[in-house]
Amino acid sequence: MLAKRIATALVGIPVAVYIINYGQWLFGITVSFLALAAWHEYCVMVGRNGHHPSYLLGFLGITLFLGCAWVGNPQETVTVATLVTLIILGKTVIACGKFSLPDAAFTLLGLFYIGLPFSHLLLLRFMDASLFAVPSAGLMSTGALFLWLAFIGTWASDTFAYLVGSKYGKTKLCPSISPGKTREGALGGLCGSILSVLVFGYFFHIPLIHLVFIGLFVGLAAPFGDLVESSLKRHCCVKDSGRLLPGHGGVLDRFDSIMFTVPTVYYYVQFFLIR
User: Fold this and answer.
1) Do 84 and 64 contact (CB within 8 A), yes or no?
2) Alpha-helical segments (H) within the chain
């Protein structure tokens, strides 16, 4: 298992660096593939627990969410959300007896849980650099810079939480959902997130106060994302969401924290770093 994790990381990290920094169509296609793969994993998981979300409507809704983000029209996301919600709820009447209200609820849960966070990957990466009240990132686009802050802060949070929790963890953080996580580990993860964001952001001349707050918010959001997915897996009685990434499980297993931290960074930038 450890060998598979290392091998996947050795291949995945350079690929991720290239795709994020290149951006454009390659990043958009990659994010779209990951989001739809996550939707497939979600449907399989909840299906094992007797729920039957509408695969096609969820697939369509997530695709439309991603399309709105890709072309830079986040306002239209509300229109898409409203339309898809009404169609999904309407299906409980049209397909009465075959598509129940719980099925509709789990369809909407997966649609918003996956579609909106992955859309924010596109929104943050493709942000107009001229709007940022920060210096240019040089060879790296400003959108890529802030996306890297979210990724690096998240990875540091997970790593420091594991290291500190393994050595000093005593008080359970949320035993009913994830018995292995501790408050000491969560605090270590928070400190790791702030430190890593400070170090990385320092080289791009981002004001210190913004780096502290970004690191803080990422460090708080990351464990919530992890616990939410753990709660979903516990409800569905599965260990991993999928097997797409050898040694790491599925897309949801690898992106559970990212799905919370990227929107957090996006809205911090929107509120505090846009001219």
Assistant:
1) yes
2) 2-22, 24-48, 55-70, 76-94, 101-125, 142-168, 183-202, 208-236, 251-255, 258-272
* Closest C-alpha to 190, from 217, 229, 151, 152: 217
How many CB atoms within 10 Å of residue 18? 11
Residue 192 has a pLDDT of 97
Is the pLDDT at 275 greater than 70? The verdict is no
Most confident range, picked from 74-88, 102-116, 123-137: 102-116
Q: Is the confidence at residue 2, as pLDDT, over 50?
A: no
Long-range contacts, 127-136 (Cβ 8 Å, 24+): 127/269, 131/274, 131/275, 132/269, 132/273, 132/274, 132/275, 133/273, 133/274, 133/275, 134/204, 134/205, 134/206, 134/207, 134/210, 134/273, 135/204, 135/205, 135/206
Closest CA to 225 of 171, 150, 127: 150
Structure pTM? 0.92
| Contact predicate 196/152, CB 8 Å | yes
Q: How many CA atoms does the CB half-sphere of 185 hold within 13 Å?
A: 21
248-252 average pLDDT score: 84
Instruction: Give the pair of three-digit tokens for residue 187.
Output: 């605090």
Contact 147, 125 (CB under 8 A): yes
